[in-house]
Model the fold of this input.
Amino acid sequence: MPTTEKGAVLLIEESENLRAVLKDFFELLKYKVADYSEGVSALKALSKDSFDICIMDLNIKPHDGFFNMKEIHKVDPEIPIVLLSSNNDKELKIRAF
Done:
């Protein structure tokens, strides 16, 4: 019986190890995953392909996640974005919300 993909995930995570774990996890759940270590390449992919969700590290280069979030929503205003961060700063959490 063929497996069908549930949707497409745009994954932007600077840490190679965490990116690999997240990609494997979503692929096991039958999601198509396009993974990037920085925002510039991810934005190019978003302009070419359609994604159901974006999962993004706030601490990516060359621009931070807030900049990339604005740019992503310029291309696809409807895409939900889940922000990841190991930073425990309360102000950062409020800004991300």
Observations:
- The radius of gyration is 13 Å.
- The mean pLDDT is 90.
